[in-house]
Amino acid sequence: MHLMTDPATPATDPATPATDPATPATDPATPATDASAPRRDHYPHRVVVPTRWLDNDVYGHVNNVVYYAYFDAIINRYLITEGGLDIATGPIIGLVVESHCRFRRPLTFPEDIDAGLRIGKLGRTSVRYELALFSQGEPDAAAEGWVVHVFVDRQTRRPAPLPDPIRAALTRLVALAPPQP
Amino acid sequence: MHLMTDPATPATDPATPATDPATPATDPATPATDASAPRRDHYPHRVVVPTRWLDNDVYGHVNNVVYYAYFDAIINRYLITEGGLDIATGPIIGLVVESHCRFRRPLTFPEDIDAGLRIGKLGRTSVRYELALFSQGEPDAAAEGWVVHVFVDRQTRRPAPLPDPIRAALTRLVALAPPQP
Amino acid sequence: MHLMTDPATPATDPATPATDPATPATDPATPATDASAPRRDHYPHRVVVPTRWLDNDVYGHVNNVVYYAYFDAIINRYLITEGGLDIATGPIIGLVVESHCRFRRPLTFPEDIDAGLRIGKLGRTSVRYELALFSQGEPDAAAEGWVVHVFVDRQTRRPAPLPDPIRAALTRLVALAPPQP
Amino acid sequence: MHLMTDPATPATDPATPATDPATPATDPATPATDASAPRRDHYPHRVVVPTRWLDNDVYGHVNNVVYYAYFDAIINRYLITEGGLDIATGPIIGLVVESHCRFRRPLTFPEDIDAGLRIGKLGRTSVRYELALFSQGEPDAAAEGWVVHVFVDRQTRRPAPLPDPIRAALTRLVALAPPQP
Fold this sequence. Notes:
The structure is a homotetramer.
Chain A: E1 45-50, H1 64-83, E2 92-103, E3 112-122, E4 126-135, E5 143-153, H2 164-171
Helix pairs in contact in A: 1-2
Family (chains A, B, C, D): Belongs to the 4-hydroxybenzoyl-CoA thioesterase family.
Region (Disordered) (chains A, B, C, D): 1-41
Protein name (chains A, B, C, D): Putative 4-hydroxybenzoyl-CoA thioesterase
């Protein structure tokens, strides 16, 4: 890892070979249609997320941290209402082991956000959720991210197979076709 | 993208080729020393971050979202105090265009967290910050993440070169050697 | 101020003469119908507030702090959409100078909350908002609170008269009858 | 409750007889020394609270909601470290039934805040905490607030006497003299 003179120089960090993290895929000042941005029909589960006053930060838009709070709310609400997850006393819980987000355009309180959720991978004890957030009326995602849950025993915190009702609920959201490259 | 029967099956998602996102690098139930976990001496800038009551979620540990709030606070405090960033009226501001975190072990209010910051890449208009969080007395990171800022003109939101004082401050944190693979 | 042997002993704190703050008006373990709890028809403006995962704290219910975030979101959304408040560049902004909440029953993610807003007092430069939060299907409020805004000039931060469109919007929500004692 | 033509007109709301909630006690634009503002020596327990980036809202200062998050963190940290409260599995927990804050001057990330805590009333099953927040170097409080906990059985959520170690810890912070009127 060394000082780069230009952000377009390829990264050598093994953690992120395919994306040059110092080279944003989208120019934040160019909100034109972006062929690589996800669209709503890539996501079988869609919900509306109202923003809150405190979501905006001092720069006047929803803070990057808050996008992950939206993701958490969308994922867990789906697990609870569709998969029967009991967050208070159930034997199996989902812990986040990795997450990522790419921010393409600003979102701003008081707008309502259209959100989409799909399942990128459904393992025996883990799940990769893929999400996107859209301003209403905009075809291209303002942000896209993913979150990996490992399901564990509540007491021992050791990995445990996904309960059947959760697996069934998540299977319905598995993306059938890969997103466009 | 298709239903995987086992999380160890390689991912095909072009966004994350090198890491299998549904195969967590660390077993969350096995907090033994992990050769791949970052250590404090990988990070030239180190600060202590007190946790808050509301950082913990219903599962009793700091929620994954809050790690990104720690990152934002650490980065911006450094930019302000060491680089002279004026978040209220300065002409150039830093916007997050991408972020990532890997969660290895839990952190829990009321502990104080040791945090480290280094610069992974320093471009003309963008910066990749790399951070790690440690429980006090633990050599291995509880979590590691990165955040990419693009610096933009406050009014036009078009990319703008890093101001010299910020570049100087960040240059001091550029990692000289690659982290261990 | 001195050590009380029983919370029913009247408070002498001049800041809160009418309510004995160490004597909660309602037993948190007795969620029976409470004649003093506000009802929906006390509040002319009503909205639904979805909860988020991180609203719950380690005790499994929405944290007390988050109620105030709901209040802020409800108030500001109303000021923006009904009163034309421009939070980004408008000349007049509303600053909170005092707030209060009484918590009667728990609220819990993932429930959707019914919220009500009325105006308790509408001054020349200040406004007292009164709010209540209800679990869906419950007649009695789970919580009631109030927030006082002083409107100020954005630059000087000196009190400024409420802009006419905001005054008109708020006048529509002024409570015509006092709430039951 | 009726439309007031002037905020100085006395309130008739039975919930707040002593303070006119639409008449802020302090002019937010006049940060001169205020005889009624609490001072540090009114509070026997004092801690430093670092601010975070996201504490600031779009108006450039710490959002009012966040003050209550500071209160929660200060109170619970004291209960845990000084009173032995076990928030994960202990039989008795403290629930907030009422809270209040008066905001006198702005606080702003990245400043570190001096905070003070005292006990206003210590009942058999409930406690009134009184807190103040100060900018470093400022004698007068930027904000003052109070929070009432009722201690309850974790399972039944019925009021329960304060455990002895917690009572002992809180007794040390009981204010011996009343604050100035």
